[in-house]
């Protein structure tokens, strides 16, 4: 007859084994299939809002060492590689600081990208845009970082209506997406950037509030992103919280539940 201490020990051992198995399964799932990603900043407004929670499709472009947590995958280059499409919303590892970024893929290898008077030009041709009214939000700190939005109608007091000009941009292959404009700045008129082979050029949809490929790594930007740094494609928002924590269910935005990322 087993002693009580022996039974208790076996129970603890089974619990530990269950936890280990669960962690292994979760790790494999996260590495091979889908990675959770929470939007911490407003650089992709109004496509993605601070507090959006989504899963990144890691099967979309294949796998590199950056597909694994802490970049521990023993992979050189990309395994089962597939080319991304212009217009995809992509999560990638920042080439310098190691953090994960999410931006829209604008430039493919061999492209020339330039901004002229706030208008995107791809290979010397202006990209089609059409006015789409305004994007409005409350001027108030957002998310855990308590980031206050920039507004085209600044100065705006806290609690006031923050307005940005909104347009629909249509990329050469037909992808249509919203972009926002706050005002004139250096990033509205840039040199022509040539995208090297094996690299990609990314921009935020909130064009005047995004550190992206228009800014060199040396200045805190993203620069050109090598293919091996791609992690996956953002396809759908699972839920979205307008509060300072994802766990504040009463602050969830009902209109963003299971919303497709376009």
From TrEMBL:
The keyword Transmembrane helix applies. Its EC number is 3.4.21.89. It is a single-pass type II membrane protein. GO terms for molecular function: serine-type endopeptidase activity; signal peptidase activity. Keywords: Hydrolase, Membrane, Protease, Transmembrane, Transmembrane helix. SUPFAM superfamilies: LexA/Signal peptidase. The chain crosses the membrane at residues 20-39. Residues 13-238 form the Peptidase S26 domain. It catalyses: Cleavage of hydrophobic, N-terminal signal or leader sequences from secreted and periplasmic proteins. PROSITE patterns: SPASE_I_2, SPASE_I_3. It is an enzyme of class 3 (hydrolase). PANTHER family: CHLOROPLAST PROCESSING PEPTIDASE, SIGNAL PEPTIDASE I. Belongs to the peptidase S26 family. NCBIfam families: sigpep_I_bact. This is Signal peptidase I. It comes from Frigidibacter albus. The lineage of its organism: Bacteria, Pseudomonadati, Pseudomonadota, Alphaproteobacteria, Rhodobacterales.
